[in-house]
């Protein structure tokens, strides 16, 4: 008896067995392949790789990165060598393997072996690179052409999946008015080259109205970029010489300095929502004041530093939460509902008479912002940067994270205390689906007028998804029990 005849008639059980085996193996594959977040939004994680030089518990190496919490990771930053029209490493010892270097590029791209979901990009630019050399690059056809070829070879050499443009910003900071058009040409030519190799092209985008208006032809660059990473922070800081919120979710109607304004403005200018990625700061802005330390109090033009990040006017979330977790530090905090920001302040220093203030995003701020991003059906969110989350899990967890979610009665249980902000992003992305579900409208008779078949097809598709969902939930539960 041949196998063929057995399959045909004599042994129907074998049919069933084969079918079950193939279903379960494909289910197994799809479950096993899930090495990232359990939702289909993007979570873009920047690593400021110089964080490795921070002292003590502030030091962040690639080994500290948890690839299961992000869909995309961006290595920040590489630089521009304008004399060669080429991308270059800004820290060859950290980035490369040559001359006994630490090989950071390949360490990060190597994480794709254990976490196949992960996309790894290299960012070029950043605040310290300025704007002038980028302006020269994009203005010249020959330089642009050379750069496009070289950068494509460079990122593939180290196994990156893409390039993230972090020119801050076209037309600003010694840039030229022509940058706006020339930046479009750069993205267009990179897109043509990258399509040959299936590479990702993204860009960090300034969030202030002035920068958006002057620097970007939003419609055009949106054609060529895979994602726009909107830097929704630094709305206020010590440079204002008064206390303000770093990244207010919303502001009074006539104030363009808010996350909501930036996102809705970009949508209005024609940015496709499925390409918009909203930035979230894992840091706060700091102020020194002799006043009470309330919002809008006059402050020094230079904010105070933290022990790890050691940068005037800037404090990582890990530094903030450490101070606030200390019962004897004398710090107090206030939640602001309109902006979804926290203002925390010290006691007055008896010698200097100064009060230290920091405005920042807590877990609750992050959760509310994720909910907003999901309400606008954006591609997802971006994080600057994972190295200032409480990546060691030293702090107490916030208890008010989902305070503003109507349908959440208890916070999801966490298996780990570290990365509280990043975990909040992934939880909130899942919870937002339920939170934003509007009650179904009563059935409508006009249904009958819809061309034959379409409704039924959709309903069947729904049923298939549902039953597949049930099966995979069962398999998932089983796997979960097995691995406990
Ligand atoms: C721009 O390029 C020149 C020439 O290589 C270099 O000396 C200068 O430092 C660059 N500017 C910045 C801000 O990196
Ligand atoms: C807590 O704060 C107090 C007062 O600033 C300080 O002396 C102490 O060292 C801090 N404790 C920890 C564990 O950081």
UniProtKB/TrEMBL annotation:
GH18 domain ranges (all copies): 41-432
Xref: InterPro entries: Chitinase_II/V-like_cat (IPR011583), Chitinase_insertion_sf (IPR029070), GH (IPR017853), Glyco_hydro18_cat (IPR001223), Glyco_hydro_18_chit_AS (IPR001579), Glycosyl_Hydrlase_18 (IPR050314)
Keyword ATP-binding listed: no
MF GO annotations: chitin binding; chitinase activity
This protein's record includes keyword Signal: yes
Pfam families: Glyco_hydro_18 (PF00704)
Secretion signal, residue range per the UniProt entry: 1-33
Keywords: Glycosidase, Hydrolase, Signal
PROSITE patterns per UniProt: GH18_1 (PS01095), GH18_2 (PS51910)
A Gene Ontology biological process term: carbohydrate metabolic process
A single GO cellular-component term on record: extracellular region
PANTHER family attached to this UniProt entry: CHITINASE (PTHR11177), CHITINASE 2-RELATED (PTHR11177:SF403)
Similarity-based family: Belongs to the glycosyl hydrolase 18 family.
Protein name per its UniProtKB record: Probable chitinase 2
Annotated organism of origin: Drosophila rhopaloa
């Amino acid at each position: 008896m041949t196998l063929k005849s057995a399959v045909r008639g004599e042994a129907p059980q074998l049919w069933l067995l084969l079918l079950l085996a193939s279903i379960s193996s494909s289910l197994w594959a799809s479950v096993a392949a899930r090495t990232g977040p359990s939702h289909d939004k993007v979570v873009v994680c920047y690593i400021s790789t110089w964080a490795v030089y921070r002292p003590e518990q502030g030091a962040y190496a690639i080994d500290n990165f948890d690839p299961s919490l992000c869909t995309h990771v961006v290595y920040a930053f590489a630089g521009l060598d304008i004399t060669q029209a080429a991308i270059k490493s800004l820290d060859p010892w950290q980035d490369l393997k040559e001359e006994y270097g630490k090989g950071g590029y390949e360490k990060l791209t190597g994480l794709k072996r254990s976490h196949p979901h992960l996309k790894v990009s290299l960012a070029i630019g950043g605040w310290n690179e300025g704007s002038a050399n980028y302006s020269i690059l994009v203005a010249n056809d020959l330089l642009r052409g050379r750069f496009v070829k070289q950068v494509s070879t460079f990122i593939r050499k180290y196994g990156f999946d893409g390039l993230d443009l972090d020119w801050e910003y076209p037309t600003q900071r010694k840039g030229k008015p022509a940058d706006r058009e020339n930046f479009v040409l750069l993205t267009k030519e990179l897109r043509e080259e990258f399509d040959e190799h299936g590479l990702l092209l993204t860009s960090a985008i300034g969030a202030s109205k002035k920068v958006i208006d002057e620097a970007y032809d939003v419609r055009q660059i949106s054609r060529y970029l895979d994602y726009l990473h909107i830097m929704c922070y630094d709305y206020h800081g010590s440079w204002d010489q008064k206390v303000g919120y770093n990244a207010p979710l919303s502001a009074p109607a006539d104030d363009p300095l808010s996350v909501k304004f930036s996102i809705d403005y970009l949508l209005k200018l024609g940015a496709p929502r499925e390409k918009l990625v909203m930035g979230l700061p894992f840091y706060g802005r700091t102020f020194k004041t002799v006043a009470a330390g309330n919002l809008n109090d006059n402050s020094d033009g230079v904010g105070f530093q933290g022990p790890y990040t050691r940068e005037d006017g800037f404090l990582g979330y890990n530094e903030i939460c450490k101070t606030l977790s200390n019962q004897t530090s004398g710090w107090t905090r206030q939640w602001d509902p309109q902006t979804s920001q926290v203002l925390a302040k010290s006691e007055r220093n008896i010698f200097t008479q100064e009060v230290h203030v920091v405005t920042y995003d807590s877990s609750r701020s992050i959760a509310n912002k994720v909910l907003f991003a999901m309400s606008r059906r954006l591609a997802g969110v971006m994080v600057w940067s994972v190295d200032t989350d409480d990546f060691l899990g030293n702090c107490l967890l916030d208890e008010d994270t989902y305070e503003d979610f109507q349908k959440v009665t208890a916070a999801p249980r966490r298996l780990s205390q570290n990365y509280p902000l990043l975990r909040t992003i992934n939880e909130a992305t899942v919870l937002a689906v339920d939170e934003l579900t509007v009650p179904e409208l009563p059935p409508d008779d006009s249904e009958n007028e819809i061309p034959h078949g379409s409704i039924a097809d959709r309903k069947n598709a729904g049923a298939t998804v549902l039953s597949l969902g049930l099966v995979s939930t069962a398999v998932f539960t089983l796997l979960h029990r097995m691995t406990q």
